[in-house]
Amino acid sequence: MSASTEQPSTDERRTLWIVLILNAAIAAAFFISGVTADSSALIANGVDNLSDTAVYALGLIALSRGSLWKQRAAMASGVMLLVFAVGILLDVGRRYFQGSEPIGPTMMIMSLVGGGVNFYCLRLLHRLENPDVNLRAATTFSLNDFISNGGILLSGVLVFWLNSNWPDLLVGLATTLIAIKGGVDILRDVKTDIRRNNGYGTK
């Protein structure tokens, strides 16, 4: 009996450690490639994956705590995602007015690498049974990253083909909108979880 109750927690902890390490590594790669390729989209994804790493760390702490800690960790995740979205928006605006020269091939290569990492993280998270509100937030982050990498791939092709920076800026803006939606969805999920735990039902 005890083994069956402990096993899900062990699986969750191992999964969060794996996705934390992978996101920290890909965040560093996105930052380096974003700076060298002068790409707003790559830097935005670097910031995104760095915030994901912090969220997964919160998730690991919350695993050994009660539902209140898990709700607070998920709420911090949602707020962090919204703050991250504002940061991307500011960077896109700066590059729009100051100009930039993104490198398309670098964007395409990094989008494929990042997409592969995020797809693997999603598979790991979806294997978990009955995920709590914090693990559902982690899944939202990984899904946002996977979608964003698809946008970077398309942007890299257009940057290379048109020799223009507007596709890079457009993907940076789109990433902002995805992050805002993800943050709002997480906060709504937390609110629903709080109401459920307090016995208010689903009204």
UniProtKB/TrEMBL annotation:
What molecular function does GO assign, one term? zinc ion transmembrane transporter activity
TM stretches of this protein: 16-36, 75-97, 103-125, 146-163
Q: Where in the cell is it found?
A: Membrane
- Does Ion transport appear among the keywords? yes
The record ties this protein, via Pfam families, to: Cation_efflux
Q: How does it sit in the membrane?
A: Multi-pass membrane protein
Q: Which UniProt keywords apply?
A: Ion transport, Membrane, Transmembrane, Transmembrane helix, Transport, Zinc, Zinc transport
According to its UniProt record, where is this protein mainly located?
A: membrane
Give the Cation efflux protein transmembrane domain ranges: 16-190
Annotated source species: Bordetella petrii (strain ATCC BAA-461 / DSM 12804 / CCUG 43448 / CIP 107267 / Se-1111R)
Instruction: Tell me the InterPro entries matching this sequence.
Output: Cation_efflux_TM, Cation_efflux_TMD_sf, CDF/SLC30A
The domain of life for this entry's organism is Bacteria
Name the UniProt record assigns to this protein: Zinc transporter
| CC terms in the record's Gene Ontology section | plasma membrane
PANTHER family, alphabetically? CATION EFFLUX PROTEIN/ ZINC TRANSPORTER, RE54080P-RELATED
